Amino acid sequence: MPMKHATLERWIWVLLYGGVLASMIGLWSMERDARLGWLLVGAGITVTALGVAGVAWRARLDRKPRAPAR
């Protein structure tokens, strides 16, 4: 069963905002624990990149030709 557009968009926004938030928390926590900070920044960048890939995937979904309605 294909994923609905609304569900995909919701996941994209969660990934984008979650990744940026994790990166910001990682940058903020580097003063206390550099290892944890870099871990959070790396995870945040990875999650944000998944969100950007989701945006590209969503844009390509609209380009596929649809069968004419009968």
Summarize the structure.
The chain is mainly alpha-helical and 70 residues long. The protein is 76% helix and 0% strand. Helix 1 runs antiparallel to helix 2.
Topology at a glance:
Layout: H1 5-29, H2 34-61
Helix pairs in contact: 1-2
Description:
The chain is an all-alpha fold. It has two helices and no strands. The two termini are 22 Å apart.
Q: What is the beta-strand fraction?
A: under 5%
Q: What order do the SSEs take from the amino end to the carboxyl end, as H and E? A: HH
Helical percentage: over 70%
Q: How many distinct beta strands?
A: 0
Q: Assign an overall shape.
A: rod-shaped
Largest sheet: none
What are the main properties of this structure?
70 residues, mainly alpha, 2 helices, rod-shaped
